[in-house]
Amino acid sequence: MTDTNSPSPSRRSLLGWGGAGLALGAAAAGGAVAMARTEDATEPAGSAIAFHGAHQAGIATPVQDRLHFAAFDVTTDDREAFVRLLKDWTEAARRMTAGHAVGEGAYGGLAEAPPDDTGEALGLKPSRLTLTIGFGPSLFEKFGLTDRRPEALVDLPKFAGDNLDKNRSGGDLCIQACADDPQVAVHAVRNLARIGFGKVVIRWSQLGFGKTSSTTPEAQTPRNLMGFKDGTRNIAGTETDRLKKFVWVDEKDEPAWMAGGSYLVARRIRMHIETWDRTSLQEQEDIFGRDKGEGAPVGKAKERDEPFLKAMKPDAHVRLAHPDSNHGATILRRGYSFTDGTDGLGRLDAGLFFLAYQRDVRKGFIPIQRSLAADALNEYIQHVGSALFAVPPGVRDKDDWWGRTLFSKEA
Amino acid sequence: MTDTNSPSPSRRSLLGWGGAGLALGAAAAGGAVAMARTEDATEPAGSAIAFHGAHQAGIATPVQDRLHFAAFDVTTDDREAFVRLLKDWTEAARRMTAGHAVGEGAYGGLAEAPPDDTGEALGLKPSRLTLTIGFGPSLFEKFGLTDRRPEALVDLPKFAGDNLDKNRSGGDLCIQACADDPQVAVHAVRNLARIGFGKVVIRWSQLGFGKTSSTTPEAQTPRNLMGFKDGTRNIAGTETDRLKKFVWVDEKDEPAWMAGGSYLVARRIRMHIETWDRTSLQEQEDIFGRDKGEGAPVGKAKERDEPFLKAMKPDAHVRLAHPDSNHGATILRRGYSFTDGTDGLGRLDAGLFFLAYQRDVRKGFIPIQRSLAADALNEYIQHVGSALFAVPPGVRDKDDWWGRTLFSKEA
């Protein structure tokens, strides 16, 4: 480089993100670059979501536009090495959600080493990135933690119509990356996978290109790939009482290490798009129990009008999924539409990647899904992937780390 | 519905898009919904790209954020039926790019019929949607058009390192859908596929989640999944002279029906992400011939500084791809990053879906790609899909249609 000793203004602004941690000498040594995504040296762009808190971000957080979800298997049986990974991941997640790159600000200063960060999110905004970790049932076997496995972390029963692919199901742990920019979400999962090299391996992953749920009370419910709004009365991130009742594990619940956490059900639901598209409007609306244009329940005018369930057909989706049909069972939905190209028959491999959070899956997803065995929609969908994760409480401060309440002896 | 005879204000605004074409009676009949994506009844939101023009939109148009690309095979041998399809597609493309739904404004008014539009883009903005059609070499066999096949529409030679999957290659025709909202792009391809039912079938398709090229002169070049900026001196949509010289087929070129068109090369390039991520910064920068942070060519300070090719290693990517190494060969790039989940070994199935437009592929992509046989980057990438399409000129007005200059006897 010609001018490493007198960086140009744009280069200076690129280098100027972190102040304290940054060795300008590394830049002068050539080849080093700084890793800030923001122009402003002192304050990241406004669109960063706080990483620290009593609960993990990415649950009650207003739903971002895009998703990259990854399930991992743990390949080490060294508990200390795994705990070290959880701490390294936490630090990387703290940086990436703030809009910074992984690592100490420059590429470690060493041109001879691989860069700490893969670089494709350089120059992009924080984009409301959230990273949420969950632990699957199989993790508890690996490290002699079976006595700490929550009773609520059941093995999900087989549901009517399930056609699960084991290569799209399960996993020792998961990372849910949500962001308004897909490149930021993909970058985050890739860098966590890279940090975990030799200790974890991605079992399966799923990109979601369009959110199908809102956790913002005044927002329009986004449409799924059937063209319908669904899940209108989703729990909003501002509804403290409903979150406490239906989403967050309480201090009085067992086990104590899960207090402030939640349980996540992930289901890959393939839609038979081409068949659906040949179905009459009347039948489509009967099946959902809503009109297609406005999203109003049968007999009502507006999407958010209270549904009158008995006006719907007995097998209507809204009717069967409604809390009144399930002893009040209520879940927080955060699903995304996916399209993974085309299958061998020229049909879109598309559908809904369903994500739901709840305080207890035995009082949330399981009874609702059992009720949906009668759903008229089942003719047009198929569940092809499934996983359940215990989502631990939030990382409270800069010294805390993902999973501490489970793995730390003091907890 | 309770109030179809006195629509509520929000419903009225939903119904009020098209004025002339809209039968309010259909709404009163129940179940019918209007198909506007914009609040304003008279003017679509500002972010619609003009569909009519001498050239198709989606080539020189400033690159949108997201892509859904589909290659189709034609399953009918009825030329008239196929021409009818091209006309139907044109009308649907005209509507969707303007932010309207497919069909006559309501769901055909008939609750007993499938809706004209699948509905998932209802309420979304036009999102700068462009739809661009191209014709593959095999199409000319199907309808006795071999005498009209352009000489420039060659069968691409095999290049060093090619590992092409025929299920991700070729196609009788293609649709490139670009938009800032992926749901709008996916909706467009899905609805065109649906209109083509029985005449065409999707052969393969590809989603791109992040653009890797810019056709806006002042814009920063976006980064690819290797974390680098590439293709800095891309042709800008405002560079009329370079577009005329390198992209648009001229009136003096053969065949006449292609005047105003272009040729599109599509290549699915898988990146060996995990291997790349373990490569030193110095080696990465040597391979590209740029620094990673700023994107400046070797020995220079800024991305857009003129590269000094002899300062780079002989096998550096920038050096080998540069027009000066290829007798001036220049192409317009519009590629997108893709991530299609994970392969069976836990590696990201990710890379670059390369899209390049040029006036003559024999003077554009082919010599450049031959030159890249020596590219140091080849250790980290593999071309796994390939297709070439003749992209006809633009649709000039409301009576014109995609492919008229090829199929119409008057042309």
UniProtKB/TrEMBL annotation, chains A, B:
It catalyses: heme b + 2 H(+) = protoporphyrin IX + Fe(2+). Its cofactor is heme b. Binds 1 heme b (iron(II)-protoporphyrin IX) group non-covalently per subunit. Its EC number is 1.11.1.-. It holds the Pfam family Dyp_perox_N. The keyword DNA damage does not apply. It is an enzyme of class 1 (oxidoreductase). It comes from the Bacteria. The keyword Cytoplasm does not apply. It is found in: Cell envelope. Residues 221-395 form the Dyp-type peroxidase C-terminal domain. Its main location: other. PROSITE patterns: DYP_PEROXIDASE, TAT. Belongs to the DyP-type peroxidase family. Involved in the recovery of exogenous heme iron. Extracts iron from heme while preserving the protoporphyrin ring intact. This is Deferrochelatase. The gene is efeB.
